[in-house]
Design brief:
The protein has one helix and ten strands. By secondary structure, the protein is α+β, with helices and mostly antiparallel strands. Bound molecules: copper (II) ion.
């Protein structure tokens, strides 16, 4: 009687342990955020900077924090936010972008955006640009951005 009860207790403990191990594994790397609908707005005239927009979805059970972005197609990429201060639209650099578990961040005209500086080659509407986001935990997040002309 005593022995079987102890065995049951041990079984419950083992079950709890394996469940914990599984969920830790899922958190560690099975789940990654996704960059959707990425696009780059081509300026109406030749300019050394462009803005990039996308929706970054985090379906994972833990928050992620984007701390940097880079692209082979640009000399410098940074996260910016546009805000209207005293009636004047101003941009400021965002040191990091945190996306909560199950939440999305939307980069859109007039709000958060990627500031893409020093394009290396002439970009044409319809061409695709790869941007890689760096996460605080050391992970990387690939994103694809389609170039669109400003008039679109
Ligand atoms: Cu900007």
């Amino acid at each position: 009687m005593n022995a079987s009860r102890r065995r049951l207790g041990l079984l419950a403990l083992l079950t709890a342990l394996s469940t914990a191990t599984l969920s830790t594994a899922a958190l560690a790397g099975e789940c990654t955020p996704v960059v959707r609908d990425g696009w780059v707005r081509m300026p109406p005239m030749a300019m050394p900077m462009m803005a990039g927009f996308a929706r970054i979805e985090n379906p994972c059970a833990r928050p992620v924090t984007i701390v940097a972005a880079s692209s082979a197609a640009f000399g410098d990429v940074s996260l910016h936010e546009t805000r209207v201060v005293d009636g004047v639209s101003r941009m400021r650099a965002l040191p990091e972008l945190r996306i909560g578990a199950g939440e999305s961040a939307v980069l859109k005209p007039g709000g958060m955006h990627l500031m893409l500086m020093q394009p290396g080659a002439a970009l044409k509407p319809g061409s695709k640009v790869a941007v890689e986001f760096s996460l605080k935990d050391g992970g990387k997040l690939p994103g694809e951005f389609v170039v669109r002309s400003a008039s679109e």
